[in-house]
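TICKET: design request
STATUS: open
ATTACHED STRUCTURE:
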């Protein structure tokens, strides 16, 4: 399926927006005056692979994929202009990649998936301001989370979290935290309270089960 080539045929200098909706699945993209795709949204759970031609989109700034991926190609994190990367409904349990230190990502999401573990290399997302890991199967987080010094929004709700690292209290730019607290140990609850004392707006969720 040549998704990007088919899209590019629909785009010209006059058309800066393209939208296709069929059987509950949709593809949306925005382009520049030159016809370069800068934002791409694909929602189709029947797609179980990463369309590699996306890597050829040199001007891409925001990518949203709600597809049934089992892995994410490491090269997507090397795209210099990419600011937002969002995934949903993935079929992967471990994000087994090494994230490049030079990444310029400001927003990163993997939500409503089966993710159980996140890599230590997440700390290399130094420009990250928004991180959404909600509604997965994560029960603990790496200490390296505390190295995301620019992080402002952290969404962890809907995970069976038992422990969060003390390093979370070093996120001095953090403004908003969403978290499910029912299974957290006492130390982790103390860290949440410290964030509240620091002025972080914390929204506590109850487990759905």
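STATUS: resolved
RESOLUTION: sequence designed for all positions
ATTACHED SEQUENCE:
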């Amino acid at each position: 399926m040549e998704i990007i080539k088919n899209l590019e045929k629909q785009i010209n200098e006059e058309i800066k927006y393209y939208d296709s909706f069929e059987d509950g699945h949709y593809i949306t993209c925005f382009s520049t005056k030159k016809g370069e795709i800068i934002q791409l949204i694909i929602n189709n759970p029947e797609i179980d692979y990463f369309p590699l031609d996306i890597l050829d989109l040199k001007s891409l700034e925001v990518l949203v994929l709600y597809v049934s991926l089992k892995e994410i190609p490491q090269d997507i994190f090397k795209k210099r202009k990419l600011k937002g990367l969002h995934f949903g409904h993935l079929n992967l349990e471990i994000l087994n990649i090494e994230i490049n230190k030079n990444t310029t990502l400001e927003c990163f999401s993997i939500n409503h998936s089966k993710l159980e573990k996140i890599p230590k290399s997440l700390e290399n997302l130094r420009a990250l301001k928004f991180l959404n890991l909600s509604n997965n199967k994560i029960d603990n987080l790496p200490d390296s989370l505390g190295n995301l010094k620019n992080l402002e929004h952290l969404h962890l709700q809907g995970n069976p979290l038992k422990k969060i690292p003390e390093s979370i209290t070093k996120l001095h730019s953090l403004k908003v935290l969403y978290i499910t607290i029912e299974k957290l140990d006492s130390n982790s609850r103390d860290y949440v309270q410290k964030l509240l004392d620091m002025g972080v707006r914390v929204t506590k969720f109850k487990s759905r089960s």
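CLOSING REMARK: The chain has one domain: 3-205. The CA atoms of residues 8 and 35 lie 8 Å apart.
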